[in-house]
Specification:
Elements lengths: L2 H19 L4 H17 L10 H13 L5 H18 L5 H5 L15 H9 L3 H13 L3 H5 L6 E2 L4 E4 L8 E4 L5 H20 L11 H4 L19 E2 L6 E2 L5 H15 L7 H14 L4 H8 L4 H4 L1 H6 L14 H9 L2
Antiparallel strand pairs: 1-2, 2-3, 4-5
Helix pairs in contact: 2-4, 3-4, 6-11, 7-11, 7-12
Family: Belongs to the 'phage' integrase family.
Protein name: Integron integrase
Pfam families: Phage_int_SAM_4, Phage_integrase
Length: about 325
């Protein structure tokens, strides 16, 4: 084996160790490792310590010019390299902080009408249908819904607690009354599945951070189990333990795509579209933007305000002169 190649696995092992020390998600870990691997291969398998600002800028430029990647993709690649040099190699390279991040274009989110949401959900059934209804009815992000644990569903208060959401923040959102009974049935199915796992010598769920050490045995308690557990046990890639993970997000994505086609909706629809629709429909119903900001878990209200643009209200909420009747034109003139 080439000496340069023999160093790569050890470097990647250190990247994984540092990322897990900082509690990065498995998805982010895989993405960062992928970009670091591409960076090394693009530079003739040379060790990153022997590379510098010129190579990083060239790599990012090739991504943008030849690869035509989105700004968010280019920024993710830069973040991966920043983490490699700053947190893994512990190399102080001032130029890394000065590399200009690609500016993300301001785009309006895709939003379904209430009739379109009803048509989409009518074409979904089973567990995927329940998760889709939960995402639309609560405004949860996809992984927040899939990672929901039994203890965080409060039927008495009709609320759901989101733990360690985006930015590491907890928050509460509403529990739709129409989903109370289906969720209780789903939790009972999860209880039976967990009981079978315990009898088979398993039943321990993954716990975030150091909770498994802090609360010994908590991982085997039903309260910590996922509301939507996977149908099969699997090996955890982080520590090699056999556990029951949550429902696969790819399964839900495929179900949403099939439902969109059956419903005849000619818009791109994803799980996140349901969250966008939740916020927009609450605004249409007259709820204030601060309340919606808290339900969505946005750190800055400016993020939530994008839905006012979707509604086309405020200063731009005007009627076309083609649609103005004499009565509406007079009313518009008299408006303060």
């Amino acid at each position: 084996m080439d000496a340069k190649e023999s160093r790569a696995p050890r470097l990647f092992d250190e990247v994984r160790r540092r990322m897990r020390l900082h509690h990065y998600s498995l998805r982010t870990e895989r993405a960062y490792l992928g970009w670091i691997r591409r960076f090394i291969l693009a530079n003739g398998r040379r060790h990153p310590r022997n590379l510098g600002g010129r190579e990083v800028e060239h790599f990012l430029s090739v991504l943008a010019v030849e690869g035509k990647v989105a700004a968010s993709t280019q920024n993710q690649a830069l973040s991966a390299l920043l983490f490699l040099y700053r947190d893994v190699l512990e190399v102080r390279l001032p130029w890394m902080e000065d590399v200009i991040r690609a500016k993300r274009p301001a785009r309006l989110p895709v939003v379904l009408s209430q009739a379109e949401v009803a048509s989409l959900l009518a074409c979904m059934d089973g567990r995927n249908g329940l998760v889709a209804r939960l995402l639309y009815g609560t405004g949860l992000r996809l992984m927040e819904g899939l990672r929901l644990r039994v203890k965080d569903v409060d039927f008495a208060r009709n609320e759901i607690t989101v733990r360690d959401g985006k930015g590491g923040r907890d928050r509460r959102t509403l529990l739709p009354a129409s989903l109370a009974a289906p969720l209780q049935e789903e939790i009972e199915r999860a209880r039976i599945l967990h009981r079978d796992d315990l009898h088979a010598g398993f039943g321990e769920v993954w716990l975030p951070h150091a909770l498994a050490r802090k609360y010994m045995g908590a991982g085997r308690e039903f309260a910590w189990q996922y509301v939507f557990p996977a149908l099969r046990r699997s090996v955890d890639p982080q520590d090699g333990c056999v556990r029951r993970h949550h429902l696969d997000d790819a399964s839900l994505s495929r179900a949403i795509r099939r439902a969109r086609l059956r419903a005849g909706i000619d818009k791109p629809v994803s799980a996140h579209t349901l969250r966008h629709s939740f916020a927009t429909h609450l605004l249409e119903a007259g709820y204030d933007i601060r309340t919606i900001q808290e339900l969505l878990g946005h750190k800055d209200v400016a993020t939530t305000q994008i839905y006012t643009h979707v509604l086309n209200r405020g200063g731009r909420g005007v009627l076309s002169p083609l649609d103005l009747s004499p009565a509406t034109a007079a009313a518009a003139r008299d408006r303060p």
